Each structure stands twice: as C-alpha cells, then as structure tokens.
Amino acid sequence: MKLRLVELERRERPYRMRMPFRFGVKTATEGRQAILRARVRLENGREATGWSAEALGAKWFDKNLALRDEDNHHQLRRALELAGTAYMEAGLDTPFSHFATLYPAHMAACEAEGLNPLIASYGQSLVDRAMLDAFCRGLGVPFHRAVRENLVGLGPSPVAPELEAADFAPLFRPSPAPRSIAARHTVGLVDPILSADIEPEDRIGDGLPESLEEVVPFYGNRYFKLKISGDAEADIARLERIAGVLDRAAEPYFATLDGNEQYSDADAIADFYVRLTARPSLQRLCASILYVEQPINRAQALSTPVGRLARRIPVIIDESDGALSAFPQARALGYAGVSSKACKGIWKSMLNLARAQKWSAEGGPTYFMSAEDLTCEPGICLQQDLALVGLLGLTHVERNAHHFIDGFGGRPRAEEQRFLAAHPDLYHEQDGRVRLRIEGGNLSVASLETPGFGASVDPEFDAAEPMPKAAWPMAGSR
After folding, report:
1. pLDDT tens digit string along 103-139?
2. What are the chain's domains?
3. In sequence order, what DSSP letters do the residues of 319-370 get, joined into one string?
C-alpha cells in the first residue's frame, strides 16, 4: 500500500526534569520535545492523521561544546525542515520506499548545511514515524501487523547494498506482539547511589525514588545501564558504590556500561576494563555486564579497532550510528552490535536487525542489537519506541524519562488521562499524576497492539508551541 504526505505540522513543548541527568558532556535539568502531525493520503484515497514526538536532545547528536543548547535545538529543527520539504514534494510510495528513496539526497542536504548524519537521521525519523502512524491508522492495523505482513514495503534497497540478497523473511515471520519488556534503569553520572547521599533539604519528596538504593525496590528492576565518565579512577570508585547496592539482590541482575564517547581511545577503555575486572569488589557486577556501549569518540570509533576490549566483552556503537553504513564499518573493527533508538530511524533499526541476523547466520561471532533511550517521555514518543523494540524482539530496553521527568512532564491533564484510559497496563495514576507503570522491573506493552504506531489516541497538539524556524546554518557552520 502506498501513501503520500499532504500536510506536515511541527510544534514543540518545554519540560523540566525532577533531578539532574548527567551523561557524557551534558548535565540536563530541562529540555524541549518536538511533536509532528502528519496528514497522509493512501492510494485508495483515504486520508489519515499520524503523530511522532522526540526530545530535541542537546549535546547528544552534536557534542561540540562551542555550540549552545539552543544551537543544538536549531540543528534538529533544520533537519526536520529539510526532511519535511523532501517528503512533501515526493509522490506516492510505500512507507519504506519513501525513506529509502529520499535518504541519499536528505543526507547530502544536511551535510551541505553542516549537520552530521545523526542529526540528519533525526529529521527523517520523525517524519517517517508520523507518516507510518497515519498509514497504520488509515488501514486500521497495528504497527506490528503492518510490518509482519509487510504492508510497509520493506525489502532490499540500494541504501543497504550488503542486504541485496538477504532474506527479510525472519523480520516478517508471524509472531505475537510481546506482552512485556524489561526496563533497564539508567544510572546517570550524578545520580545519588545511596539515600544517605541526599541531604534532607535536597529531597524532592514527590513520591518517586531519588537514589539507586530506592529505585531497586520501588520498580523491581533487574537490568541497569551504568554511565561511565572516561575518568578510570572515578568510574571504578563509583561502580564499586553501585555494586554495593546491586549485589544485595539474591536474584541475578544484568548491567550495561555506557561510555557516551568519553574514553579517549580504544586502549584507554580496554585498560579500564582490565582494571575493572581485577577488582574483587566488582566480581559480581563484572560478571553481570552484557556489553559496553560507545566507549570512544565517534570521530575515532569507526576508524579504530576495538579488538582488545571486544575479546573480553561485546562492544556496540550508539552515537556513531549516523549513516546507514555505520554498522558494517563497525563490524569490521570488532564491534558486535548497534543500538536501536527511534530517534535514529525506525527503518535503520529494521535494516540493522536484518544485518545482525544475516551475519550471525554466516558463522563466527554473534551480532546483535540493543535498545537504548533518548529520554522518551510518556505518550507518543515512548510508545513508538516500545513498539519498535517489541518488533525487533528485544527483551529489555533502557528507560530513563520516568526517573528524570515526573510523569507527562506538565502536559495537559486531558492528554495524560487520555493515554491512561487507552493504556492502563502501561500507565497508572499515582499521587495525582499519571506515571509510567513498572512492576517487577517490567513494562506491560500489550495495549500497544492497537491501530497505529503504538497508539491510537492523540496528544494535545494545540497546547504545544509552534516550532520556530531554524536559525541554522550559523556563520562558519558549513
């Protein structure tokens, strides 16, 4: 089934964080979320409206410290403008073919304006998701079914030449949508580990956990994502404190380490890991680590072998996953996997899954995908990402917005109540706010199997601010 984009509107809204979130070079205390509304016309003449939403993530897509957060926001707005113009000018095509056909020119247009491939991917991703949501709503089918029955036109394409002869059937094999996914809790670089770390006058007191020590019994998490800073001494000391909390559990737990590009080179992270695994106090934690995520700067990551570290623990790329060629490049350097994030592209995730399955079937190393988070707030953003994770067959996903932002982040009461009514397994009302429901460490996602891309209800679009025209390119940015 083909469709065309006939109208695209962009808005955004601010949010404040209930506690600071430190990752990489950024300590976030507030942010902005982009919201897109797309109206499409299917080839049968039917029209439908769809949505997408995503954080305008400052200092993640571009970590250049010479740029202000406002500059980062304008970069992402410009990528959305460029993608929107291209899709509006396109004719009838399948959801996947829209992406694949427009991808080369969109990447080139962004590069010409000094926007890196990760930023370019953001622009296409939000338009793709809003169109796919409208497509699914127009057909009256859930996202999972639309892909499994390949109503979306996914298949071999010049944008992924190594998949020209690949078998996409495993992606389309009939299988039930998952009913639950484990939430992997993010431990940021300035998060309190023990409750005693929080001075009484600094307590938030909103009924949600404030330290890792409080998070574990509150949500029942068994999976954890631990941020590291690039300072080996400080990282080891902090991980020892974290292990002191996690090791209290009688049941097994699992952890991932996220470098956020902070280690200087491949030898530095390999040396760190040797020291880490030699510490008696960290034996259980180290035995629980599943992989190390993006330890070194993206400028070096796709040109530097990581074999020393990869022989000890799988290593994956995240921020380096800008262009579609990134995962094959990373594989050649010893990386075993790549993250899925809806903000980087839903079609990219599906192509990368096909790659991982193809390469693993060839014998030798096993290749895989992980599911990571870009502060996916409740509602459209969270639910589209969870629907994608479920489609990919991933059993745990990093989730952090529920910890750093209280519920729906100050959005209209009508919106949060609408989502609560439609998805009572995923949300609950607590202390007068609608919040994410995590029980036994798991997210119930059964209600996402609804016509649309993970949701069939709408956000309060008119309550958001019109997105300003991007103030980009800046002088000297090209």
Report:
1. 999 999 999 999 999 999 999 999 999 999 999 999 9
2. 3-170 (3.30.390.10), 175-463 (3.20.20.120)
3. TT--STTHHHHHHHTT--EEEE-GGG-HHHHHHHHHHHHHHHHTSSS--EEE
